[in-house]
Amino acid sequence: MPHPLVPPVLDWYARSARDLPWRRPGCTPWGVLVSEVMLQQTPVVRVEPLWRAWMQRWPTPAHLADAATSDVLRAWDRLGYPRRALRLQECARAVVERHDGELPTDEAALLALPGVGTYTAAAVVAFAHGRRSVVVDTNVRRVLARTLGGEALPPPSLTRSEMARAAQVVPDDDATAARWSVAVMELGALVCTARSPRCAACPVDDLCAWRAAGMPADEHAHRRRRQAWAGTDRQVRGRVMATLRAADHPVPEALLVDAGPDEAQRTRAVTGLVADGLVVREDVVGTVDGERVTTAVYRLPG
DNA sequence: AAAGCGGGGTC
DNA sequence: GACCCAGCTTT
């Protein structure tokens, strides 16, 4: 017997699923992995066009492994969290070296790849290989917190009990399990949304514990605090990266002033980027008024 | 368990 | 202006 949520959600998905390129039959397992990495904290609408161009340019792990890292970072453009692009190229190289260029099907082997965590490994098992796994992303957490937990939103960080609850709902056979995983995620993305859920369009509104309880407010609200954006180190890092992506020559330190007015903050940002491998610093020896001086220039790696 | 890490759209 | 988005890695 499947869990009561499963049949109506599968039926809803058959009617309502978006036509996304990484869900098409011809998409390779590597294409699925690339989509999953790009979708880590980045919405579908921003990923889709970039994914198409990316897969056109680097269709296989071998292609990406051989690319210049500077090209990879430029192609990543403003998708955000550029370290993901670095990890993705490292992942491609690991697939070439460890797995003869073919993405493994084993979840533990996937988890061992750079940039692949619990969610992404499970997602590739289900969406690329059609096998049973426990896929728990922010959408699944929210749907299960509401329908089964009776709460507005899940706790701030993923708990063991959430994983256990999710595992209980996943159907036993591979094909149905894979279908369930994509379907419940889609339900969270399109209907059971964080801000204003469309319960009128929900296939399991009659089974929803949160709805039955009168849709009480979020109990964890006081513990959710996000880092602000304006004026942060992250913003300055982003601007430095934007400057270097746009430059076709190494950029002198003085030109990075555009990234922000606070010198200490700029230094922090650039130092961090160099430590992360996203930026390379070079010392250039020149002559000013007959004196030898050393100045720093910055560029993208590779 | 918590903090750091982009960037853009939406309410 | 706050919140949210198919999370991962490091401490």
Give the beta-strand count: 3
Which residues sit in consecutive blocks of at least 5 with pLDDT less than 50?
A: none
Task: Please provide the ordered H/E string of secondary-structure elements.
Answer: HHHHHHHHHHHHHEHEE
Instruction: Output the radius of gyration.
Output: 23 Å
Strand content: 5-15%
Distance between the termini: 54 Å
Give the arrangement of secondary structure elements:
Layout: H1 6-16, H2 29-38, H3 44-57, H4 61-66, H5 69-76, H6 83-99, H7 107-111, H8 118-127, H9 138-147, H10 160-169, H11 174-190, H12 209-212, H13 233-246, E1 251-252, H14 263-275, E2 280-288, E3 291-299
Antiparallel strand pairs: 1-3, 2-3
Helix pairs in contact: 1-11, 2-3, 2-8, 8-11, 9-11, 13-14
The chain binds a DNA duplex (11 and 11 nucleotides) through helix 2, helix 3, helix 6, helix 8 and helix 9.
Protein name: Adenine DNA glycosylase
Pfam family, one: EndIII_4Fe-2S
Keywords: 4Fe-4S, DNA damage, DNA repair, Glycosidase, Hydrolase, Iron, Iron-sulfur, Metal-binding
